[in-house]
């Protein structure tokens, strides 16, 4: 499913959370600028972007397909629903089986009746320190869709919380944990917590790189060093989770290339070796998204 080369494991080519956030900046639909930045990524060796935009985020498979074609990057698209406050009302009135069938259709037929098939489930999410009933329903439906199709599951944790409970949930449903990646764990700043997830067999994402208002990148690097020391370097993916217009270079933001241009040198400076950097950027996502 993935091409040889680097993979950004958790991005949103286009996403609109402005109906709830009430900030126009959260409507990321900068078609031209995104293509420019994706082309720049391509020149730097990026071949895959995992697009984790699900229902309730104004998912737009045709738009994403056009960006893929124009930039040369293989953008993998997704199905599912996000965390509670972005869930549509029908989550309550539909059965788990009906929700699962919607996901299976995205995977086997095409997303929202397009020809673009979803290749993963998620980011499916939990709220801060809790999994609401509606979120649990999405998780249950995701388990059914995963069991029927075999596609992997990627999750959203709010500020890294409830990752442990997500893992427990998947365990209780007999999901193979090496088919699950827990998102945003870098936002915990708590490496012991992340290690406790890894010991269960899941993958984890350091996917908010560059968002230093949430967590300094130096802390991310120190967490990574400890995780590598403990022997889990095969279980980590990297990404930036760019979601706002102001994150793009043309609008004064860091831009996607920051991960490669600034964060990778920071890892090197902190003695993370080249083969391990290659693993996190290239080998690991390819092993997971087979
Ligand atoms: Zn997220």
Write a concise synopsis of the structure shown.
The protein is α/β, with parallel strands linked by helices and about 290 residues long. The chain has helices at about 20, 30-45, 60-70, 90-95, 95-110, 135-150, 165-170, 190-200, 215-230, 260-270, 275-290, and strands at about 5-10, 15, 25-30, 45-50, 75, 80, 120-125, 155, 180, 205, 235-240.
Describe this structure in words.
- The chain is an alpha/beta fold.
- It has a single domain, classed as TIM Barrel (Alpha-Beta Barrel).
- Helices cover 41% and strands 14% of the residues.
- The protein contains 11 helices and 11 strands.
- Strands 6-7-8-9-10-11 form a 6-stranded parallel β-sheet. A 3-stranded parallel β-sheet has the order 1-4-5. Strands 2-3 form a two-stranded antiparallel ribbon.
- Helix 8 links the parallel strand 9 and strand 10.
- The longest helix has 17 residues.
- The chain is globular, with a radius of gyration of 18 Å.
- The model has no long low-confidence stretch (mean pLDDT 97).
- The structure holds zinc ion (ZN).
- Zinc ion (ZN) binds next to loops.
């Amino acid at each position: 499913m993935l091409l040889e080369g680097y993979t950004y494991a958790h991005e949103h080519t286009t996403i609109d959370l402005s109906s709830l956030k009430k900030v126009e900046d959260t409507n990321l639909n900068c078609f031209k600028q995104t293509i420019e930045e994706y082309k720049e990524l391509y020149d730097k060796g990026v071949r895959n972007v995992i697009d984790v935009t699900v229902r309730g985020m104004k998912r737009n498979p045709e738009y994403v397909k056009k960006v893929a074609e124009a930039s040369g990057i293989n953008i993998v698209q997704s199905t599912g629903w996000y965390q509670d406050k972005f869930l549509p009302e029908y989550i309550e009135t539909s059965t788990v089986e009906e929700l699962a069938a919607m996901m299976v259709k995205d995977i086997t037929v095409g997303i929202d009746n397009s020809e673009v098939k979803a290749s993963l489930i998620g980011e499916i999410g939990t709220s801060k320190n809790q999994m609401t009933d509606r979120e649990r329903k999405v998780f249950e439906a995701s388990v059914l869709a995963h069991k029927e199709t075999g596609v992997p599951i990627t999750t959203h944790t709010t500020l890294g919380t409830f990752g442990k409970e997500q893992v427990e949930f998947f365990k209780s449903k007999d999901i193979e944990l090496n088919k699950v990646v827990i998102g945003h764990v870098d936002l915990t700043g708590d490496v012991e917590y992340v290690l406790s997830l890894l010991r269960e067999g899941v993958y984890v994402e350091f996917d908010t790189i560059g968002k230093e208002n949430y967590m300094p990148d130096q802390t991310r690097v120190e967490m990574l060093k400890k995780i590598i020391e403990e022997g889990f370097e095969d279980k980590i993916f990297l990404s930036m989770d760019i979601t706002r217009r102001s994150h793009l270079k043309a609008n004064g933001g860091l831009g996607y290339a920051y991960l490669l241009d600034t964060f990778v040198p920071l890892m090197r400076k902190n003695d993370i070796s080249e083969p391990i950097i290659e693993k996190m950027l290239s080998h690991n996502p390819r092993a997971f998204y087979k």
